[in-house]
Design goal:
This protein is an alpha+beta fold and 314 residues long. It contains seven helices and nine strands; from the N terminus they run H-H-H-E-H-E-E-H-H-E-E-E-H-E-E-E. Helix 3 crosses helix 6 and helix 4 packs across helix 5.
């Protein structure tokens, strides 16, 4: 199965206003899809089975995830685990920069995989994704997430069987500006909307209730298969929904479909904004292009190296 485009290499995606002005006036566009059909064309043979109704809200959360492309899950991790995970992540983050300086490499590194390392990649200005295993506190945090409703919702959305693709930390530096809109991966079928194949679980390690978080275009995972045309149709039919930032209290997580439009907001927390990330996918899917092979710490294990890469979790 072909891997998806990496996050940092994806072409820029238009916003709603740009989408309405970028069609050629002297060339007839192809037939426009029906916006209502776009939101109801999930293949019946690919759709995940509904979880049990008496499952502590997992069924309702899964339904919201499939409709919107994201969902917030409350009370995933306790305060102590968040604090320990935050401290461990920021120590590992600083050690990566120290290692770059010691090697005489550019600090900060260049944006994208070409300037990055297997341990850390600068995704955008002021934003990094890190896989360096901070400490056993990081492994403990991963186990907490895997035992939570957030994990149960992700597995249900993926059809009841999933593998863990990776474990990482996304860090936005203090006062980092908002990102451009993007997806983390494309659709695997350009002809129809299929069920989710990859899901990210984001768990902020600092309080983002007043300092920004991740902004989403609800329902846009149905549009990104052919974004320009389908967003235009949705806007004409007045079904295009406004952006939303889920309000997360400490310990809450947000799950999102790889294909949904999203962006990190401005970091107004007053310090670095680390977010624990667990990525799950259907057993046959692999996302191979997000980190280069060049290493800052050759031979050192990465966060998630001890995960059963091909073993199902449920």
């Amino acid at each position: 199965m072909a891997a998806l485009l990496p996050r940092n290499a994806a072409p820029p995606l238009p916003d709603a206003d740009a989408a309405t002005s970028s069609l050629s006036l002297d060339a007839a566009p192809p037939p426009l899809p029906d916006a209502d059909a776009a939101t109801s064309s999930l293949s019946l043979d690919a759709a995940p089975p509904p979880p049990d109704a008496d499952d502590d809200g997992v069924a309702a959360l899964t339904a919201a995830f499939l409709a919107d492309g994201y969902v917030a899950v409350r009370g995933v991790a306790p305060a102590g685990a968040l604090a320990r995970g935050r401290d461990a992540a920021l120590v590992a983050f600083a050690e990566c920069f120290d290692a770059m300086a010691a090697r005489g490499e550019p600090v900060p590194p260049g944006v994208g995989q070409k300037g990055g390392y297997r341990e850390i990649v600068r995704r955008h200005v002021g934003r990094y994704e890190m896989r360096r295993a901070p400490s056993r506190d990081w492994a403990a945090l991963r186990r907490i997430v895997e035992a939570s409703r957030a994990h149960a919702v992700a597995v249900a959305a993926l059809g009841g069987e999933a593998v863990v693709l990776g474990c990482s930390c996304v860090v936005a530096e203090a006062a980092c500006a908002a990102q451009a809109w993007h997806v983390d991966g494309g659709h695997l079928d350009a002809a129809r909307h299929a069920a989710p194949h990859c899901v990210n679980v984001f768990l902020p390690l600092v309080d983002v209730s007043r300092g920004g978080g991740t902004e989403f275009r609800p329902g846009s995972h149905y549009l990104t298969r052919d974004l320009k045309r389908m967003m235009l149709v949705a806007k004409i039919k007045k079904t295009l929904r406004p952006p939303a930032v889920p309000v997360l209290d400490p310990g809450d997580a947000v799950l999102f479909d790889y294909r949904v439009l999203h962006r990190g907001t401005e970091n107004t927390t007053g310090g670095p904004r680390p977010v624990f990330v667990l990525t799950l996918a259907r057993p046959w899917f692999r996302d191979l292009l997000n980190f280069p092979k060049r290493a800052l710490f050759p031979g050192e294990a990465l966060a998630g190296d001890d995960l059963p890469g091909a073993a199902a979790v449920s």
